[in-house]
Amino acid sequence: MIALFPGSFDPVTLGHLDILKRGAQLFDQVIVAVLNNPAKSPLFTVQERIDLLRESAADIPGIQFESYSGLLADFARKREIHYILRGVRSEADFAYEMPMAQANKQLTDELETIIMVTNHAYAYMSAGLIREIAAAGYASIFESGFDDKVLDQWVTPTVKNMLKNKFM
Ligand code: ADP
Asked: Which of 25, 46, 52, 143 has minimal CB crowding within 10 Å?
């Protein structure tokens, strides 16, 4: 069985990697599908996001990386993939995922969305929050100083270095 794990991954976090690791144990293959949506004005380009994923997930067997644009259901149908893997952190995530899963099912009947509950250690964390902290921290907006060790609990060293390069 093959699953798609779609998202922005801007950048990949330890929360994403936890879902990916657990997903890779459930499925024979997981294809990480990086959304190419310039309207979202991402921090990292699609290629950078894929490179960061590839390096950060080097120890997880059975995964591949691709980018897609447009409707996920369309991408899944073209590739003949029947499972979408999503991670949820909270009721808010669940409320966001439900209509997407329902719509995808309407678009392609054989498409199943598998929702995996986050590891509690990562339940409060989002890529957006990490971007904000890194942007402010590396630009020395924190009056009390910024020790970037704080980022280690949320991202891999590779991602941390890329954040540093972007903002310093
Ligand atoms: P999107 O913009 O599509 O929500 P993200 O890159 O933010 O994409 O996330 C991709 C997937 O990973 C989504 O299913 C999201 O809910 C999930 N996810 C994000 N952060 C975490 C986390 N800390 N723990 C578990 N799942 C997460």
From this structure: 143
